[in-house]
Structures are given as C-alpha cells and as structure tokens.
Task: inverse folding
C-alpha cells in the first residue's frame, strides 16, 4: 500500500522540462506533420524532449498534471 499517495508532500517525480504551452505547441506541430528538429527549434526544447512527448503524450500530460497541482 502506498501511503504517500494521499499526502500533499508525496514524491511527484522529476519536474517536466517543458511547460503546458510548449507541450500543446509540440502536439499541434507534430499533428501538422512538422519534423522533430523543426518543432524543437520552434519551441526551444531539445529534440529528445520532443521525442519523449511524441512517443508518450499521455505520460507527458500526466507529468505536467502532477506538477501543476
């Protein structure tokens, strides 16, 4: 049983290296067919971060949600 889940000071993992606005911009640009390098340059993120968002958008969204609370 995980007792930390209900606590306010529970471990949330590492803070995401991107903001909600950057996440949405990456999603939109990738949806329009832009390349990863082009998206990374436009948003100011690293290519690795763009690949991480592209590969698992639900996980990236969850990380943002944990830190926005």
Result:
């Amino acid at each position: 049983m995980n007792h930390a889940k209900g606590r306010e000071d529970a471990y949330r993992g590492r803070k995401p290296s991107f903001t909600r606005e950057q996440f949405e911009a990456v999603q939109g640009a990738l949806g329009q067919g832009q390349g990863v390098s082009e998206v990374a340059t436009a948003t100011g993120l690293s290519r690795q971060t763009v690949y991480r968002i592209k590969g698992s958008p639900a996980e990236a969204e969850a990380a943002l949600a944990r830190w926005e609370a």
In short: The CA atoms of residues 8 and 69 lie 10 Å apart.
